[in-house]
């Protein structure tokens, strides 16, 4: 069946538009995210400048106003502050000040519950010696025979561990396409299948809703996570 030239031209134009969209969309989204982050930091920096102008002598107000007008300066200040903080807490005096500030915030009502919880989570997630989010696995969820990607965050502890069999894992199952929300599962190690992909590759796979497959997908065998002799067997 012959297609008229106009129809072929429309198909070619659609193809070129889609190709151009695939080229520009990732760049546009990246720029949009960065601009929003920088805009948020600039807004916080502007608020701090206004607060400083009410406290400091009026003679420094013109200088502060000039700093406020420099775009992106807040990013440089944040990076510098993080570096200086890291260097400061690496010595005994800095550690002492850090311990005193932790003790102060931990004794303020209401504030202590928020600060302590956030600190425990951040110390667990970002610790170089921690095992949270170091491994991507497959687990059957939300029903048997339906598989999803999860991240190993550790092992149950405390009262929860005392109520469960040995050799259990704590998993975080992220939602798609927003992996910042999800579900926590406590499952037997024998019910988990190890993946060869890295955590970054697994996140890309989740965010893309399975469209962007990792380069190692299908080339590495999917094997159960190694279990000890006392590990419970999977329930049928």
Our count of helices gives 7
Q: Average pLDDT across residues? A: 79
How is the largest sheet built, in terms of strand order?
4-3-2-1-5-6
The tally of domains stands at 3
Order of helices and strands: HHHHHEEHEEEHE
Give the tally of β-strands: 6
Radius of gyration: 26 Å
Strand content: 5-15%
Helix content: 40-55%
Residue stretches low in confidence (pLDDT < 50, at least 5 long) are 218-224, 226-236
Shape: flat
Distance between the ends: 55 Å
Main sheet overview: 6 strands, antiparallel
What structural category characterises the helix and strand content?
A: alpha+beta
Description of the molecule:
The protein is an alpha+beta fold. It has three domains: 1-88, no CATH class; 92-129, no CATH class; 136-224, no CATH class. 50% of the residues lie in helices and 13% in strands. It has seven helices and six strands. Strands 4-3-2-1-5-6 form a six-stranded antiparallel β-sheet, with helices on one face. Helix 1 packs antiparallel against helix 2. The chain is flat.
């Amino acid at each position: 069946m012959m297609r008229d030239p106009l129809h072929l031209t429309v198909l070619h134009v659609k193809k070129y538009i889609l190709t151009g969209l695939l080229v520009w969309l990732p760049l546009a989204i990246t720029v949009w995210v960065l601009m929003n982050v920088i805009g948020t930091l600039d807004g916080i920096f502007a608020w701090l400048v206004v607060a400083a102008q009410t406290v400091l002598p009026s003679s420094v107000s013109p200088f502060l106003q000039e700093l406020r007008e420099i775009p992106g300066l807040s990013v440089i200040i944040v990076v510098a502050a993080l570096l200086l903080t890291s260097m400061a807490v690496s010595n005994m005096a800095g550690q002492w000040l850090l311990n005193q500030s932790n003790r102060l915030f931990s004794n303020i009502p209401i504030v202590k519950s928020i600060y302590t919880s956030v600190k425990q989570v951040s110390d667990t997630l970002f610790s170089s010696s921690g095992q949270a989010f170091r491994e991507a696995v497959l687990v059957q969820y939300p029903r048997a025979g339906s598989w999803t990607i999860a991240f190993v965050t550790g092992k149950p502890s405390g009262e929860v561990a005392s109520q469960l069999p040995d050799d259990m894992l704590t998993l975080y199952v992220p939602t798609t396409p927003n992996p910042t929300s999800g579900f926590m599962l406590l499952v037997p190690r024998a019910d988990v299948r190890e993946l060869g992909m890295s955590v970054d590759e697994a996140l890309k796979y989740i965010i893309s809703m399975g469209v962007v497959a990792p380069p190692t997908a299908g080339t590495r065998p999917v094997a159960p996570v190694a279990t000890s002799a006392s590990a419970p067997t999977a329930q049928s």
